[in-house]
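Q: My collaborator sent me two sequences in one message, no labels, and asked for predicted structures for both. Can we handle them in order? The first one she listed is below.
A: Yes, handling them in the order given. First sequence, followed by its structure tokens:
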Amino acid sequence: MVNRNILKIRKQLDSIDDDLLNLIKKRTKLVSLILKNKKFKNEIVDNKRISVILKNIKKKSRKKKIDVIVTEKIWKSMIRSFIDYEYRNFDKK
């Protein structure tokens, strides 16, 4: 049997997950708007932009005292996922 504290904390985690899903939905809409402005598939991956994003996330993570490895992995995964999303949706625009 899982103790009450763990159940309480998991409920908070579930709420944060809901918030994250709402943010991902907003981010997806913005990525879709950017995709509409791209004329060629080779515009999808912008390595300079990716580098700047990751550097900023690392800096902000340190400032907020968040584990830098965790945030870097999350952002790299998110970036890869949105690049995939753009490739899958490029021809449909």
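Q: And the one she listed second?
A: Here it is, processed independently of the first:
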Amino acid sequence: MKIRLLPLLAILSLAALSRAEPVALAQSRTPGTVPVVMLSDIHLDPFHDPAKLAQLRTTPATGWAAIFDAPPSPTQAADFAQLQSTCGARGVDTPIALLESSLRAAQKQQPTPLFVTVSGDLMAHQFDCRFHTLAPGATAADYSAFAAKTVAFVALQLHRTFPHAPIYFALGNNDSGCADYREDPNSTFLHADAASFAADALSPANRAAILSEFPQLGDYNIALPAPIEHTRLLVLQDIFESRRCTACNGKASDDAANAPAALQIAWLRAQLTAARAAHEHVWVMAHIPPGIDAYSTFTRHRDVCGGQSPEMFLGSEALADTLTGFPDVIRLALFGHTHMDELRVYMSSDGKPVPAKLVPSITPINGNNPAFTVAAVEPATATLKDYTVFAASNQTGIGTIWSEEYRYSRTYGLPDLSGASLAKLTSSLLADKAGTSDASRAYERFFYVGDTGLIASIKVAAMQLAWPTFACAITSSHATDFRSCVCPAAGQ
């Protein structure tokens, strides 16, 4: 996702509105919490030095660090530029220097997290084009094996950074053994990833659960570590919920009842129902957030008030409906995918909220600076009490300075990211039709992570023009609800 600038002259008059800092509100204290590190959309590009691919293919993931650390090939810059052109790249994904810088910075900010979450997309964009361009004779099995080694390498780097913390991964749409938004249940790629992810779970019971459940659809159910009490983490590979998803052969399932999406939703409902019966709390983590894609709806000029449908992230409301059926159980939903720093609240039919956090990306491919999140969790209730986003000063990882972007409690003046607090915040955002309140301006400013100066002001001004679209997307997971929010005067 990338924020495209509206014509400069059309919005420069609005840019000054966005330069004002949001009013600094009293920071909530978070006594008795435990720390968690949250990452998303790493998008490691192992092809950044194309000449090294042959060696990477013949070397186990445990030996990749030495290959990456070796001096670049003499033609690295020209080779990479040609690969970018061949694959029509829109930007530069994460090279090894940026991954290493990100992990060092995360470790510096929180050296001993209770656990680490990674909400999908470990592999670079256009991974299949890059691989097959550089290895034209490779087979489908060769591709799957290299993709799995890339995932394994990222997992290894995280484990080396946080050796005493379990690391929990979801897969994203780019994390595939065949192509973007394509995967087969029970594939060799999923089996290989299960082994990589189980090794980072630390708990023997959780390792066994991942090895048992993950290979089928990329889903698993594990217990979060003490001192967090009576809480489970449910992880989904939710590309199967997307209308864009197909099997590796490019075909969709013709058996709706037994399609991966239907099986996955049935699994999720069963896990949530069991957690409710056991009086357990649940965190849900997946890559693609259910609901409205505000950016695409606005930039594609969808006439929602005129009857056109908004753009949906998944194209299905099944996942959102499942989440909203368990507001008494789910304490937090974690997603990624947009590369931006966002919030969502999924509201049940009787008005009970499920809070969700979209974690910003490590990759700077959309022009945003890389970012990660350090959070504080209340163990007794599994409530996300506070979080801080840290952003990089540049997009290369070389000479990068990482600094605090913002802290949730200080910026929004709320005690936690519970459903009740997030419902209160989103209600105020919806009430601000012009997007000019302190809270709205903070959301607009920090949405596009790490961008500062005049260009950032222009982007915030552009977002203010689209504010009803963005604000309504925070709270509306159904197209009908979104239309009613954006177009109240039309009675839609």
